[in-house]
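Field log, afternoon session.

UNIT: design team B
ACTIVITY: writing a sequence onto a fixed backbone
BACKBONE:
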C-alpha cells in the first residue's frame, strides 16, 4: 500500500485483501487478524482513507477490513479493537459515513466497523463508545 498511496484503486484492492485475509472464526482466522494488526494493517487502512476521502470504494473496503480485524470477543479481539482506536479507525469510519451518506455500502461497512470496534464491557469499552459518538 505504501508505494502506491496516491492510487485509489490499489488502496481499495489492498483494503479488500486485508479483509479477506482476516476472514474466518477458526484458529487460523484469529491468527491472521492478530498478525494483520501487528504489521500495521489498521494504520495502513486509516491512511488510505485519509488520502482518498472522496473515493467510496476505498472507504467501504477499509471499513470492511476494520470489521474483520476487530472481530472477536477474546483477548486478541480486544487488543485489535484498542489498536484500531489508536490508529484512528473510529474517526475514519465516522468521517466516511458523513462523506458518503448516499452510499449504502460505505454506510453498512462503517456501521459494522464502529460496532466491532466499540463492542465490549471491558474497562475501555465505554471510552470507545464515547469516542465514536
Amino acid at each position: 500500500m505504501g508505494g502506491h498511496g496516491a492510487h485509489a484503486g490499489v488502496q481499495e484492492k489492498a483494503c479488500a485483501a486485508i479483509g479477506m485475509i482476516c476472514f474466518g472464526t477458526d484458529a487460523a482466522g484469529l491468527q491472521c487478524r492478530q498478525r494483520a494488526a501487528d504489521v500495521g494493517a489498521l494504520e495502513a487502512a486509516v491512511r488510505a482513507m485519509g488520502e482518498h476521502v472522496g473515493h467510496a470504494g476505498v472507504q467501504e473496503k477499509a471499513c470492511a477490513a476494520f470489521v474483520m480485524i476487530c472481530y472477536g470477543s477474546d483477548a486478541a479481539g480486544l487488543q485489535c479493537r484498542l489498536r484500531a482506536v489508536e490508529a484512528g479507525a473510529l474517526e475514519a469510519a465516522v468521517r466516511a459515513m458523513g462523506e458518503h451518506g448516499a452510499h449504502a455500502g460505505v454506510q453498512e461497512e462503517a456501521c459494522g466497523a464502529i460496532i466491532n470496534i466499540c463492542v465490549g464491557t471491558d474497562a475501555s469499552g465505554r471510552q470507545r463508545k464515547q469516542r465514536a459518538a
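LOG NOTE: The chain has eight helices and no strands.
NEXT ACTIVITY: expression trials, pending approval
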